[in-house]
Amino acid sequence: MKEHQFNLSISLGDYAHQVIHQNFQKVIDQEKSVFKDQDIEPLHQMRVGMRRLRTAIQVFGNAISLPKEVNNSSIGKIARSLGETRDLDVLQQTLIERYQPLLTKAEESKFVRVIKHLQQKRDRSFLKLKKMLNGDRYQTLKQAIQDWLIQPNYTMMANLAVLEVLPDLLLPLICRLFLHSGWLVGTTIQSGKVSLISIEDGAELNQQLRKFGSNLHDLRKHIKGVRYQTEFFSDFYEDAYAQRMEEFITMQEMLGQLQDHVVLSDFLESALKEDLGKSLPTIAQIMREESIAFWQSWQPLQEKYLSPEFRKSLRSILTTPLVQAHL
């Protein structure tokens, strides 16, 4: 059982201030390192911090009154700019570390061309990113958040204790996640019963990926949002809650690797102006094998999260924060 070192009776407003401050600080702490551009990790951390900041503002929206400059749109534009450069970093890292050592000599020359093209694209993206971070949008947003943290404005709801409203905050998130169509990719439904397509039927599963891959990508984004929001409140729940958060991370990573395949394949075919199976057959074959591995890892979690009994148990966890759990 956890030991808790903070006040469980903290108000929604005070907790909102705490979470927003922590994630805003995470963003600005990375600025100098991002500008130096000597390591890809600070950019990743800055992007995560910006996304979590955006999520925090959404979660606590009913309790806080923010300056007009601080809104979902302004934060989203900055997060996307960070994400564009970060995605190119991930692409480059994956190509060099995961795939290059496995290439044949005949493929190596084409691969070098790809990396050169990718580096040029990344350089252009980073120049745009630096301009954005030095520009009015980011600087205005940053100043507005700093001003609010010094002198915060709240609504009446901010006076409520977090524990009083916690189930009402989290249950809608989970219910929307359960209703996402991405859970049904790779399944059949007969007489209202959902069944997973057999892992042996690789052709059908791959067809499902081609046809409904965008659903899985969107499911990943939903899982990531729920993960961030549930992480904000992890100290208010018992260990079973933390176990679900770990599953959210695992599922997000699985679906992220799948999306990386889509991005990688599209980029390579665009750069080489040729079908991937012809230009870099080694990479094409590895990606086919990794698609099979994805289903082997994904289906047990998919089946679990489609289970009515499991869904009921997760909803039950969310309705019993620590105070109620100890009664």
Write the layout of secondary structure elements.
Blueprint: H1 12-29, H2 31-36, H3 41-59, H4 72-99, H5 105-134, H6 136-150, H7 162-178, E1 187-190, E2 193-196, H8 202-232, H9 239-272, H10 276-279, H11 281-306, H12 308-318, H13 322-325
Antiparallel strand pairs: 1-2
Radius of gyration: 22 Å
Question: DSSP helix count?
Answer: 13
**Count of discrete domains:** 2
Low-confidence stretches: none
Assembly type of the shown chains? single chain
Task: Note the beta-strand portion.
Answer: under 5%
Percent helix: over 70%
Shape: flat
Distance between the termini: 15 Å
Mean pLDDT: 92
Structural category? mainly alpha
Q: How is the biggest beta sheet arranged?
A: 2 strands, antiparallel
How is the largest sheet built, in terms of strand order?
Answer: 1-2
Would you list the SSEs in sequence order as H and E? HHHHHHHEEHHHHHH
**Secondary structure: number of strands:** 2
